[in-house]
Amino acid sequence: MKVKSILLASSALAMTATAAAAIDLTLVSWGGAYQESQLKAYAEPYMAMHPDVNIIWDESSAEAVAKLRAMNEAGNLTWDLVDVTVSDSIRLCDEGLAREIDFDNELAPAPDGTPASEDFGETLQNDCFVPQIVYSTTFGYRTDMVGDTPPTSVCDVFDLKKYPGKRALQKRPIDNMEWALYCDGVAKEDIYKVLSTDEGVERAFRKLDTIKDQVVWWTAGAETPQLLADGEVVMGSTFNGRLFSAIAEQNQPIAMLWDMQSFDLDGWIVPVGLSPEKEAVVMDFLKFATDTQRLADQAKYISYGPARKSSAPLVGKHATLGIDMAPWMPTDPANAYNPHYYDYTWWADHRDDLDAKFQAWLAK
Description:
Elements: H1 2-19, E1 23-28, H2 32-49, E2 53-58, H3 64-74, E3 81-85, H4 86-94, H5 103-106, H6 116-120, E4 130-142, E5 167-170, H7 176-182, H8 191-195, H9 198-209, E6 215-218, H10 223-229, E7 235-239, H11 240-249, E8 254-269, H12 276-289, H13 292-298, E9 305-306, E10 340-341, H14 344-363
Parallel strand pairs: 1-2, 1-3, 5-6, 5-7, 8-10
Antiparallel strand pairs: 3-8, 4-7, 4-8, 4-9
Helix pairs in contact: 1-12, 2-13, 4-14, 7-9
């Protein structure tokens, strides 16, 4: 069955390539160092193998749900493959905007023949989501702006007396609401229970009110490293790979605060509505881009852990710096001492409501 599906996909790809001089694939991602790692690890190698395929990048992943909803309403799909978080993939899958994946027949097995579903294991969160990386949202801080006692707790973000200066936070409720409740005394295991009540939501906003006038709100992951590099903020949240790039590649005076880092997964969804010819090319690329070697290769360029078990032993040194990448991974034991784990289903159920309340709070 696997052989048959592989042959069919290859045949469809060949027919599509013959039918057009060039096949444009629009891939949607997040920009910055992460997108560059995708480009180097699998987009460029794939285009080298398939000269008729041209990959175009769109950096709108933060707006993936809203834009795919609008495209669906307009009947005008302009995206071919979209990088999203798990919570967004759940919403897109539930709304019928993302295609279900036959993991074992449409994705590559591990080199030893282990089926893809077993190799990805717990990173498979729903029927539409193909994981790429394990990453975290955590804090970076300017080493020369925190005095002799650098921050050790996420709650130091809320301590304006000890660490005066601007903070950078992502312009969304996710992470900020959880950190606010945690630093207001809510136990980690009770965060979503408290956040499920109107009183809990207000409690989180009250805690955020204590630093609101000192916050620079960001929407793109590259913003916080730049704000830190420019000395415009003393600390800020962003994705751990962006901080790695600023510290290890750019030698900025920045250090990382791993306490209460929010573990997350990123991966692909295939939009519903592609033509059969375009879908064949997309699925061929997806199979290539998420195989064992490609996910291990991505870790050469950015400090995100590969989502496949079989990729982990292949992770080595940075492609240009030659440094060991393991200590920069969010999953390294030295960094994963107090992580926060998302409740993806909770956010899928509450995201639209919390988004509206968060925007209303920002406007006050």
